[in-house]
Please model this.
Amino acid sequence: NAGVTQTPKFQVLKTGQSMTLQCAQDMNHEYMSWYRQDPGMGLRLIHYSVGAGITDQGEVPNGYNVSRSTTEDFPLRLLSAAPSQTSVYFCASSPGTSGSLLTGELFFGEGSRLTVL
Amino acid sequence: QQPVQSPQAVILREGEDAVINCSSSKALYSVHWYRQKHGEAPVFLMILLKGGEQKGHDKISASFNEKKQQSSLYLTASQLSYSGTYFCGTETRWGKLQFGAGTQVVVTP
Model:
């Protein structure tokens, strides 16, 4: 199993450009999420999904869109990139959700480093 | 709202113990603990569920006070491999798992 695969690993954008960070998992996990990590601020939740067709906003959703049309994929779209979106992005999935809370660990991808000029 | 972790950093000698605290202003469904080494993805350590169930590594222990919305991670007899940044994550609503700013742990020989 490949686990959680993020592409691309590195990307440089110009302000105003749009792009999609891809995330795919082959473990049949219902739960998936996106985080961004900036120095001194830990991991901040952007969007999450408890199952196919269901998405919800995290703490920093502005400027990002997601969709979950399949169990395997959870792409993150940057609509109009800004320098403030320069960050390392992590996608994660989890097998454990009882229908009311997360009961299992998060499996993280290797991260995608995005620079917006 | 992100949970609050303390301390921000701790330096230990091998064999010493440390406690990392995590508190939330909201009721918690679950608390997760992860460790991240520089340039790598976070790695799972422990999950504590509302109601008392725990899952995690044998050598790492943690507590969860549901009434006070607090959790603590106990590093006992620290080893060099314990160095890294520790994050607590709090689930305040189904699936909404938010992490604190992290506690940097340095273990020296």
Summary: Chain B has no helices and eleven strands. The mean pLDDT of chain B is 91. The two ends of chain B are 37 Å apart (CA to CA).
